[in-house]
């Protein structure tokens, strides 16, 4: 299995194809429904975003509380389709990699191809598996959202499958 | 042990571990995908998902972590024996308190909001549970609780079918709903079908169906055969584990049916993820309250 350090470089993204199984190390942002809505509204209004999305990776997830001695609780992917209305705008702002589960809309696939980005599928429901890969957690923005707040993770050995590649190849087409 | 403590302990366990019937079906899925998948890229992806699920369960058990960050909404079915002398208010209190304690002690994610449309303020403790009350024969009080995750719940659906549609209409509708769901509900999935009653009764029955042992079919051979036909049709869709293709899409189909009106055939399809977390606590007449 190929291993990569985040952020991914352009040529690394171009080399990845649907169904490739890869392992990620490094830093990624976490945000789901409300974070997407807020970021989208800020982009619409032309406001500065709380983070620079250029080259960034975002993981659709809301963790369970961290037990004593762990940095995070269960932290598997949530359903990506709910982010579909907001993702094209984030991709235009430089976002390169999205991690979640399940299919994406035609608009998102178009935006992925247009911006040479990547959509990765994490293993659904495998919250304990991913908790094991998280080395540290840092708050980033929208703290008031609790388990839905935007945070940054350092991960090691984070396993995913390429679901939609930068040429539009997809694991969801039959 | 009090009823509250029994509920608490059952729920602490349920976030972390799965029942034997669910584990059996997951291992069956792994074996079947390996044997019949034909080594295609799709089937290999499905196998990777199933392996990740089994590894995830081992880690959850070892670290006593919830297997999934979505610890769900408490959906509770209380069957109260007509001869039971336990106060309904005491049963209700035990359920609320047992849920509250499990959420705290087993690190459940706080996933419940006060109202659905406007502020969506988190209740902070996953309360209130949604409770259905039913009367049954005998003196036992049986409390079944489903930790209903919403990745899968968002793909559940109701169809008001034509009364002359028969089993074909049921099979077709389930196929359409599962196809639309694709990889969203964390397949391989469990499918609960409620058929008959009214729209809301069908929905209720479809959830109750999810409590049946996944290895056991309906007692009526006609409905058992329909369960098998629906399952075969769903597998033929090749959604696969993780929605990337493969020969196993569903782990079981269970039907609950009841009388309905001459003009209709309500069908509700409740989809549950592979993490089919359910508990059953029985309170006997002589047990501590």
At a glance:
The complex is a heterodimer of chains A (174) and B (289). Chain A is 22% helix and 28% strand. Chain A is an alpha/beta fold and 174 residues long.
How many beta-strand elements of chain A?
7
H/I helix tally of chain B: 8
Mean of all residue-level pLDDT scores of chain B? 97
Strand order of the largest sheet of chain B: 2-1-3-8
Order of helices and strands of chain B: HHHEHEEHEHEHHEEE
- Secondary structural class of chain A: alpha/beta
Q: Tell me the structural class of chain B.
A: alpha/beta
Principal-axis shape of chain A equals: globular
Q: What number of structural domains do the residues of chain B give?
A: 2
Order of helices and strands of chain A: EHEHEHEHEHEE
Q: Which stretches of chain A of 5+ consecutive residues score pLDDT under 50?
A: none
Number of domains of chain A: 1
N-to-C CA distance of chain B: 8 Å
CATH superfamily of chain A: Fe-S hydro-lyase, tartrate dehydratase beta-type, catalytic domain
Give average pLDDT of chain A, whole number.
96
Largest Cβ-defined interface: A-B, 38 and 44 residues
Instruction: Classify the oligomer.
Output: heterodimer
- CATH uppermost class of chain A: Alpha Beta
β-strand percent of chain A reads 25-35%
The largest beta-sheet of chain A arranges its strands as 2-3-4-5-7
What is the secondary structure topology, with strand pairs?
The complex is a heterodimer of chains A (174) and B (289).
Chain A: E1 2-5, H1 10-15, E2 21-30, H2 33-44, E3 57-59, H3 87-92, E4 97-100, H4 106-114, E5 118-121, H5 127-131, E6 134-141, E7 150-164
Parallel strand pairs in A: 1-2, 2-3, 3-4, 4-5
Antiparallel strand pairs in A: 2-7, 5-7, 6-7
Chain B: H1 3-14, H2 20-36, H3 41-63, E1 73-81, H4 88-105, E2 130-136, E3 141-148, H5 150-153, E4 157-161, H6 166-181, E5 189-197, H7 199-209, H8 221-236, E6 250-260, E7 265-272, E8 278-283
Helix pairs in contact in B: 1-4, 2-3, 6-8
